[in-house]
Design goal:
Largest sheet: 6 strands, mixed
CATH class of one domain: Alpha Beta
CATH superfamily of one domain: 2-enoyl-CoA Hydratase, Chain A, domain 1
Strand content: 15-25%
Number of strands: 10
């Protein structure tokens, strides 16, 4: 069995903890990780003893975004589709999903955070929508990210690719709240404890009401965003930029 995502169900309490565990590549969203995460989300959905899902990560990064190394071996379309399907599964689950966010979160990783019903992060965590610097657009994650952000914040960060911390992420709506790193576990535990006080039917129906706009966006725009992302990843400009990142470990030079 793969250990790209670890599952720790506490059925007595009603909490399933899913942990991204691809530490070597900073929990990049590879096809394998996405497939495993989808499988475990489905498993938690089907388990009547589970009432809340906690999504967290091992290592210094929560998620470094899409696995760019896959671009060397072929189409990025399967990964792009997997990113959209993970967002869809989180949004459409009948059980609340709480994200515990630490470290760095880049590009596609923000879609996972934005899809969660509640996202608690550390003030020291770091975020960036870096797609624009690689000749890409944050198309697939725009399905959940854009509804979370103010219009001005979205324009600035998607166009600049600038990094921002957890406190700013909370102010603009990406995070529910941000606390010092030392208090992160306690803050997540407090949130989970409060959510567990809800009746399963009440949680299910309330989440259905809350996620209606996101579900509509995913249904209406999901395939278009998959197609756009795959097309941009396959473009010569993006391929050159990605190869520069992979080969030299730094951002590519600005285009001429």
């Amino acid at each position: 069995m793969s250990e790209l995502v670890l599952s720790s169900p506490d059925r007595d309490r009603g909490v399933a903890t899913l942990t991204l565990n691809s530490v070597a590549n900073r929990n990049a969203l590879s096809s394998g990780l996405l497939e495993e995460l989808l499988r475990l989300l489905e498993q938690a959905e089907d388990d009547d003893s589970i009432r809340v899902v906690v999504l967290r990560a091992n290592g210094p990064s929560f998620c470094s975004g899409a696995d760019l190394a896959a671009a060397r071996s072929g189409s990025m379309a399967p990964i792009v589709r997997g990113i959209v399907e993970v967002q869809r599964r989180i949004v459409t689950m009948s059980k609340p999903v709480v994200a515990r966010v630490h470290g760095s979160v880049r590009a596609g990783g923000l879609g996972v955070v934005a899809a969660a019903d509640i996202a608690v992060g550390s003030t020291e965590s770091s975020y960036a929508l870096t797609e624009v610097r690689l000749g890409l657009a944050a198309a697939s994650i725009s399905l959940t990210v854009l509804p979370r952000l103010t219009d001005r914040a979205a324009s600035y960060h998607l166009l600049s690719g600038r990094a921002f911390d957890g406190a700013e992420a909370a102010r603009m709506g990406l995070l529910t709240c941000a606390v010092p790193e030392a208090e992160l576990d306690a803050a997540v535990e407090s949130v989970v404890s409060e959510v567990l006080k809800g009746d399963p039917q009440g949680l299910r129906e309330t989440k259905t009401l809350l996620t209606a706009p996101l579900r509509s966006r995913l249904d209406e725009l999901g395939q278009d965003m998959i197609d756009l992302s795959a097309e941009l990843f396959a473009s010569p400009r993006a391929r050159r930029a990605i190869e520069a990142v992979l080969s030299r470990g730094r951002q590519p030079r600005p285009p001429a």
